[in-house]
Amino acid sequence: MEMEGEKTEDEGFFFHEVSFVDRDGRLRTSRVPVVQELDRRGITQLPQRFVQLKPGDSVGPTQCCTGSETLQTIDLSMVRDGSAEELAKLAEAAKQQGMFLIKGHGVDSSVLDEVEAVVKGFFGLSFEEKKSSVGSYGSADNMGYGRNFVKSEDQPLDWIDRLAIKALPKGATDGLNVWPHKPANFRRAMETYVDQSRNVLDQVLVSLAESFSLDKHAFLHQFDPQGSEMNVRVNYYPPCPRPDLALGITPHTDASALTLLTQISHGTHGLQVFRGLDHDLDSRSGWRTVVWPSGALLVIVGDLFEIISDGRGESPWHRVVTQADAERMSIALFYNPAPESEISPVKGGSGTYRKVVAGEYRMHLYGISPTKKKEAILHAKKA
Prior knowledge:
Belongs to the iron/ascorbate-dependent oxidoreductase family. With 383 residues, the chain is of the alpha+beta class.
């Protein structure tokens, strides 16, 4: 278990203490500032460790040179009724955009309202209350309250605090203090949301198979009902003194099969998707801001789905930018086959991909990510 968050008396700042394995295989620890507490302190200068961009880079939602990204919106209620038009839209969105909005999804509005309320309640606590409410664990899953994906002392840091929980399979976190005790209804609200969201993602997997003219269980059968995983990551992005220099999350593709994202801070948008050429992620003109309406959920295609679909769906590069005058929160659910399961590309696709073990691939991606190209997925491609 990682050490408790620490406050240094001389600086007055709070820190997460995170563990990582360095390039020589040694276990190291690093102190990472708690960005919510930096904001609460009222800092006006961005600490050097958070500088990721060059002055003048165009990153903000209103500065992005190519504007906003118009995503397909898939009505799952129409898909359930057999709409060929909606299925065609779904296949195009998965292949061409790698993400799509869904409505008619079946997640109760009361469930969404409650899960949003408990997330706001948790991040409304003081730092000491949050640390006493939930622990932090430096395993590969980086569960608990704190930071994730810190790999070195000199790594530029994302402007984010997060809460990470393995919600499925049931009992996966028994004995670990990863579910907040405050608010008191946090676990019940989140587990209800996860259960309903799993049903949604199972339907999406079936619908994607049908949209590609495959057997409807072609993808879903690789998700063992008892062993498949759902990892929850609650993201908190406080206002940032220099949004032109910092990122909320570094450019990446998701290692998951599918990611389901709900935005809590309605009216502010920070997610951007890359539409430039040749994976030139430094291009100022390649990033587009993703805007979606209240009540809609966003599905992002991950690397594992790109593999099992044999390239029919493609995982997109995306990142999160910061805001100068607004906080943002979101909930990401990462849906994966059981980590020990060997997943196989369905036949009839590009023929590019080979079998991989789900958990091994995810560890491979985390080990080399982020990169300037989709190098991780080369691991799953045939020689």
